[in-house]
Amino acid sequence: MALGIDMGIGMTSAGTRQRLVRRLEEKGIRDQRVLQAIATVPRHRFVDEALSSRSYEDSALPIGRGQTISQPYVVALMTEAILGDKLPDKVLEIGTGSGYQAAVLAQLCRQVFTTERIGELLRTARQRFHELGLHNIYTRHADGLGGWPSQAPFDAIVVTAGGHIPDTLPEQLVDGGILVAPEQRGSIQELVRIRRYGDEFVKEDLCPVSFVPLLGGLE
Ligand code: SAH
Question: Which domains does the chain have, with CATH numbers?
């Protein structure tokens, strides 16, 4: 490989990504569809160039405006949590951030709708989707607490910021749909999964997590 090209992708090659996938497997991610999606998405393209050498570590990294790109393990866990035997067709994400979680979902789902309240972050994420040819991601500069009523119902909803989960979100699920979200409980957050059965909503705790806060309004 020519030196110039290698300089660009050496730290960020498919081999490096494969090591991350093995680490996630060791941590308990079993779904091959999720592992394949993580192996496909170039996470280094979702962080600032200065951080790209760290982009395949299993850690959250700063993306500006006090926000973070989620830890790969948590992205994998949330993605695994919404998959059944059948892949969800239409998914809503609250909190686009870097766009990485949306890009992972876009490998598995036909349509990904994602909302972000900070315009500057959304512009950067949109540019990345465009450059990577991710044409099945639809973005909106909006407060995601209201969901995306004109596109509802969704097979799955993924909330990537921690807070109180408003009823409007699970109400935008199809019957049999699944929502995963970090729920704030005092000073801790618990990743919860809510399944919709008709008008019933059944919630289960998955594990403790640590996300940036879910905030109202636009920036
Ligand atoms: N999924 C992102 C994680 C980014 S961190 C990724 O893979 O990089 C969470 C993001 O949620 C932040 O960018 C934050 O601005 C956004 N956010 C917080 N509250 C929100 C709300 N009510 N509506 C939309 N986005 C929100």
Answer: 60-209 (3.40.50.150)
